[in-house]
Amino acid sequence: MPARRVNTRVLQTFIALLNAGSIAFVADRQRVSRATVLYQLHSLEDRVGTLFHVQSDGALCPTPLAVDMAPKVRGMLEIWAGLVGGGAGEPVVQAPGSLRIGVSGLAELVAPHVLGHVRRMHPLMDAMLVPMATDAALIQALRRADIHLGLSLGADDAFQVVTDCVEMRCRMVPVCSRLRHAEFMAARVDAWPWLLEDSMPGLSADLGVWFRAVLAGGEPRVRAQSVGVLMDLLAAGLGVTLLPEVGLPGYLAERHLAVLEPAVPFMPPPSVHLCVVAPAAARRAAQPRALARDLYRVLVADVESGQGRQRDEPHPVR
Hints:
3-stranded mixed β-sheet, 14 helices, elongated, disordered N terminus
């Protein structure tokens, strides 16, 4: 059975439990059953480990892991709230055109499905796609803040796209094979203060580590979960950069991935963007049609199957 996906609702429940110290209080506040709150808590604990100990009087005692996670989770929720409006744990009402997603390259083939997933997770959000002729145009649109997010697949020069995004202080999680890790480590590490660290257990607000753990589960799990992974990264105000060398299937089969550690303590960036890129090496490894098919299978299989919604019950509205 595929592992449950961690989403913003679960993270909001975690913070609410930490603040209230009572499952009953949080259930009443959120107008849900206690079983629902426990379901959300357990779905997170399945990923990261024990977060609370239940006292004899029913009160919750946070574990050191929960205390360590809390600041980062709060920071992620604040970033997300700043992007779409509203506050953590509160209903969000988005203004028209509040989320503009720029797409270029092969991303246009999968972007409609990603957009559909955004709308399913956040039905009140007025999200729209903005096609871009080139990756350079995408970068310029991000630079001018004409779009909130950028999605690029099959970039001619993925490393340059990443470099441009870093210079604009876009938040990213470079997830790459060890072959490319050395190349990134040779870059100016002091320009990457908003990367997630690789040392925390499980999720621990470090969704790059969680993303890597999902990949390590094998291609079937990735196909079932990757849209959720992508959107959870988005919900956390993060970007993910995929840099496969031998095409997507070979990349997903590779177990040895690396995530850069931060050069300085975590600080939220001044703006939130998402840029997903795959270099020309991947495009040369397969015909564009075949690559697009692989991207579709990996990114959006659960959207059209509807399995994601069934797995996410009892919260149909995300």
